[in-house]
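We both want to read discrete structure tokens more fluently, so let's practise on a single case. Once you have written the record down, we can walk along the chain together.
***
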Amino acid sequence: MSELEKLLIGVEVEWKSLESVCSVLKGKQLNKTELTELGDYPAYNGGTNYSGFTNKFNVDKNTTIISQGGASAGFVQFIKRKFWANAHCYYLKPDIDVVENKYVYYFVENKQSNLTNFQFGAGIPALKSDVIKKLQIPIPSSNNPEKSLKIQKEIVRILDTFTELTAELTAELTARKKQYDYYREQLLSFDENEVEYLPMGDDSVGKFIRGGGLQKKDFTDSGVGCIHYGQIYTHYGTYADRTKSFVSKEFAKKARIAKHGNLVIATTSETDGDLCKAVAWLGNEEIAVSSDACFFRHNLNPKYVAYFFQTEQFHKQKRSFITGAKVRRVNASNLEKIKIPVPSSREQKRIVSILDKFDILTTSISEGLPREIELRKKQYEYYREKLLTFPKQNK
């Protein structure tokens, strides 16, 4: 930052329309027959994902693109490889004698929320190119192109540092998740001669109880805690001791109630992967459980059971009991048939202590890598705003 401050001493900033320093071009429709799964170049419409691969390209690498249509209209990203820009994709070609390529990207990305606010159309949203062209971009020391580009490059260098750090942390998180998955499978796999495998509905193991008729309209600001099946996918991790939602005491009297140590399981989902996602309830209070969910009362270590529900050996058994086409379900009566390895209480505790460390590192938003990544993103957004916001008429 000190180097940038030196460069900015006495510098005037001129605000120019983006179209005066940058060509705003639209992609060209690619025939669906030319899209493959294994082509040399990705094809983009501008959304978060590419629409496939092709064996030709129409845009060079290191290019800023903006989505033109659909729910992602206005979404900005920087493509580091040659690609095909489809018809629903705008791409930018800066005048390199006036503006640094990546400087344009960071500026437009900082204006992404403005662009999405200009979506139009009642059916499929879209974004007009004029909205992009009329964006006002600050050009420091515009009367001295050499110095101007030097300032822009320094701003890019600072912002690149943050994006690279976030990318490194994200890669680290991916590696740790793979490591976590591996150790979880290993720790919960036993020789059948060493540990007994019992049906989860066995009298010595536990019992599955279906949730009641709890719906989102029954939520209150306070009262008795409750878990709605949809929240298990979106809000809860492996375990919890607080609920996101509540119901009235009167409603709780007629609800299905889970207790400390019970496992709460989503028995309905649109995807097989999310089906039977489970959270161990570790709060001291009793809580209400919604329909399309069930809870498991048992005499095992609650976290041990929750970790077992994340293993491939559990999912492999679960798949044979899935019913439904668009909406996928597993009945509580079928969950009782799934076999779980039952080591000693001491061994369960040992396994949990190891997996807890991985769980915190890979999923915790207060202690682990996700928290670190979120902090770095906020830091990046703060400096991006600070570095790309200049007074309109002052030095």
Observations:
- The chain has 13 helices and 22 strands.
- The CA atoms of residues 360 and 368 lie 5 Å apart.
